[in-house]
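Dig into these lines:

——
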Amino acid sequence: MTRKQTVILIALIVFVAGGIIFGAANRINKKSANNNPPQIPPVSDSKNSAEYYTPEVPKNAKPTEPDKIIQNATGQKTETLKIFEIKVTKKGYEPNEITVNKNDDVKLEITAVDGDYDWSMPLSGFYQIAKKGETKLIILEARTPGTYNFECRDYCPGAKIKGVFTILP
């Protein structure tokens, strides 16, 4: 191998190694930036917002008991994730009402039982499509109190399927 070929080979190895290191560092930065679940954003004042959100919560509303709770102790802070399993069938969402406290971290496990369905919470940007037998996950922070409507928007057999997600103050 000539000296020129050796220099080119070393330069190529350094270039590839640099790309691998840069890619790994970029992936770590993206993961650390996404450690916090998305928040339900403050609701805009659009004309249609009343159909999907109201700042009022039902009187005497109590938090729904989650299906599972995961606690993760990190340093001095203990984080709790409340998990709710939602089944969707032609009859609707089960449960179709979920109530949580403000500042709860929530994971919704949405399972399409007897067909393809979607789950949409308009004004918040959350949307998932689940094929028959599939479970989709939505993780969110409950920060803005009020009552949010969710629905099956595009993949619904027959009439629209609706539900209510309430965040207590």
